[in-house]
From TrEMBL:
It comes from the Eukaryota. Pfam families: Methyltransf_16. Gene3D superfamilies: Vaccinia Virus protein VP39. It comes from Polyplosphaeria fusca. GO terms for molecular function: S-adenosylmethionine-dependent methyltransferase activity. InterPro entries: Methyltransf_16, SAM-dependent_MTases_sf. PANTHER family: HEPATOCELLULAR CARCINOMA-ASSOCIATED ANTIGEN, S-ADENOSYLMETHIONINE-DEPENDENT METHYLTRANSFERASE OF THE SEVEN BETA-STRAND FAMILY. This is Uncharacterized protein. CDD domains: AdoMet_MTases (cd02440).
């Protein structure tokens, strides 16, 4: 749960656009109030000051909460960001900003279909939405960039030089609410850094030439691209097959762009391949020595799907490294806990020789200042294998 008066990240708290028609007046009003805490903390919309002329007018926003009431974990010993920094993280996060703009635009465009108690309430909410939306264009003629290029540099003690990866964080499509794979998330950055700083922990120094590595839910492909550059540099030219997989066509298009950017010179075999993969229907014939995934659990069914997918793809001596993001606020609160629950179920998949897929090791990782999004408390890294 979030602290009283805390601001929630728009990406995990706004009513879904496709469900706006069924959202209540209270839900929409609360969402607008939360957005004002983030983006308009020092001024109020005109609609808030206007006196109510009708007894049933309920859609007014409350006065803004002071800036230092931004949300963070209740356990301040485990999270380094103070309240003010957490709120600033939300306000400056381009992903949260784009999510908010898209939601407000949809709200205004569908106003006539929304369930309000009166026309005055509807008009008040629209005024508030328009005011918040206008705050994004206050910086004169500056336009939001369509694409954000991000450069990552990871140090590796076993390599002769640092691992460099350049990513294109593409804008969200606006038509598919599941295209969050177009953005780079904190867990993929943390995991990529860990792979480079301690390759032996992940058995990267012992990979055979014909081994296979697959990233599930690759998104922008940061982890797979990092492996594509790291593994050959620490294995004297050994280059296992590395596949970055995702399900969504838009995400795969951006992923292929990122692969071409980082590996521009043609080779007999691509250093990293982009392939479509549905967790519910993975290929049985593919036996993988290393499966890896970062921040891909966003629903209570995802952990079970991942578990069963890994059971069908993982080689007898293979390892599945799964990093999940721990969130304590918004609609993803508690989702991380579903991973451990999935591996104590009675229907856990077993191998042909009767072995069971189990969590072998768990490492808790604290959130790092300046990495990740505002709703992230920390991360849990699971080592999963046949036991």
């Amino acid at each position: 749960m979030s602290p009283a008066g805390a601001a929630l990240p728009p990406s995990s708290s706004l009513p879904p656009i496709r469900a706006l028609i069924t959202a209540s007046e209270e839900q929409i009003t609360a969402a607008l109030q939360n957005l004002q805490k983030i983006y308009c903390p020092l001024r109020l919309p005109v609609a808030i000051h206007a006196p109510s002329h009708r007894a049933d007018k309920t859609a007014h926003l409350a006065p803004p909460t002071p800036v230092d009431s931004g949300y963070v974990s209740r356990d301040e010993a485990s999270v380094s960001l103070d309240l003010e920094e957490a709120l600033l993280d939300l306000r400056t996060d381009p992903f949260e900003r784009e999510t908010t703009i898209r939601w407000l635009t949809a709200l205004i465009g569908r106003a006539d279909t929304l369930a309000f108690s009166s026309e005055d309430s509807r008009d008040s909410a629209l005024d508030d939405a328009a005011f918040i939306l206008s705050s994004f264009s206050d910086s004169a003629d500056e336009e939001e960039p369509e694409h954000l290029t991000r450069d990552f540099l990871f140090a590796c003690p076993l390599a002769s030089e640092n691992v460099q990866v350049q990513l294109n964080d593409a804008p969200l499509s606006g038509t598919d609410h599941t295209d969050v794979g177009l953005q780079s998330w904190g867990a993929s950055i943390i995991l990529s850094e860990m792979l480079c700083s301690d390759p032996k922990r992940f058995s990267l120094t012992a990979l055979a030439q014909d081994s296979t590595i697959i990233e599930l839910g690759a998104g922008t492909g940061l982890v797979a691209l990092t492996l594509g550059k790291l593994v050959p540099s620490i294995n004297h030219g050994t280059s296992p097959r590395i596949m970055a997989t995702d399900y969504h066509p838009t995400v795969l298009t951006n992923l292929r762009t990122n692969i071409a950017t980082n590996f521009p010179h043609p080779t007999p075999r691509l250093a990293v391949e982009a392939l479509q993969l549905d967790w519910a229907s993975p290929p049985d014939a593919q036996k993988v020595e290393l499966l890896i995934a970062a921040d891909v659990v966003y629903d209570r069914t995802h952990a079970i799907l991942l578990r069963d997918c890994a059971a069908r793809m993982l080689a007898p001596c293979g390892t599945f490294w799964l990093m999940v993001t721990v969130r304590e606020v918004g609609k993803f609160e508690g989702i991380a806990a579903t991973v451990e629950a999935a591996f104590i179920e009675d229907d856990v998949s077993k191998s042909q020789d009767g072995r069971k897929l189990e969590i072998v090791e768990k490492t808790e990782i604290a959130k790092r200042k300046g990495t990740g999004r505002g709703d992230e408390k920390g991360y849990a890294l699971y080592k999963i294998g046949w036991a």
